[in-house]
Amino acid sequence: MNLSLIKKLNALELHRIEVLSVLSRWGQSLVVLMVAAILAVWLIGPKTGAGLFDLAHYLVPAEARALILGTDSAEILTADESAGQLKLWSSTGRDIPSIASQAALIPSHLIDHSAIDRGILRTEAERKAVTSHLTKKFGLSPEDTAHYVAQAITVGKEVNLDPTLILAVMAIESNFNPRAESRAGAQGLMQVRTHVHQEKFEPYGGPLAAFIPEANIRVGALILKACIAKAGSLEAGLKHYLGAPNAASGINTYTGKVFSEREELRSIARRFNNNV
User: Fold this and answer.
1) Are 204 and 216 in contact (CB under 8 A)?
2) Which segments of 140-274 does DSSP mark as H helices, in order?
3) Contact indicator for 156, 201 with CB cutoff of 8 Å
4) Is 139 helix (H, G, I), strand (E, B) or coil?
5) pTM, rounded to two decimals
6) pLDDT digit string (tens) for 210-244?
7) How far apart are CA 47 and CA 41, in angstroms?
8) How much of the chain is in helix, strand and coil states, percent to nearest 5?
9) What percent of the chain has pLDDT over 90?
């Protein structure tokens, strides 16, 4: 083998080593960036929304966040404790605190009758059809969707509102993201402003229970009922719930979207109503 060929082979080998070294450094950098992103999302907490936060939440124990940031900053630990309290009530046979007594203080004659329907979602077929529809439309797990539907039915009875109305509000407000949070501080499935309604969450463990579906749906439904009573009609009540009583009406407005979503759910339920 001549000397020039040996030199060429050596040069090629050196080049290969350099390329592998660069790729290795890039790979290491990518891993570092991914870890940093997960850590950042994890530290930020529920304000990021469900997807990334849940990934970080599952990869790193919540208790570690308290060790790094201190107990004063461990908001998610408090939220987990609230969730644990609700699970404890259920597992021990105790009912999750009802909102019915507070809802009963709102005069029923002030509620627009179009906001009430005790006959919808009564059958298992209706509930399954609506659950399947929401699961596909919003990319939810069947278990989560079934739970939200069941909670809407239970809370609907507590506050005497149509459960499909409650589900429609959840759909438009948060896309069924229990960790959603707006820039205005509205939180959870029904986007309740906890800084305004802080006392309503006390039975559920405090304001951070806004990220717990059972608590958020109850408080949100109570506020919705109060808004309908105050405004005098369902549409006006929805505008008050939005915090924009002078908002426009129409198909592409907030109220139009809620009405459209509600009617879609009711139409699906009617098709599978065993009494029809």
Assistant:
1) no
2) 142-159, 163-174, 213-231, 234-242, 254-271
3) no
4) coil
5) 0.72
6) 999 999 999 999 999 999 999 999 999 999 999 99
7) 9
8) 70, 0, 25
9) 55
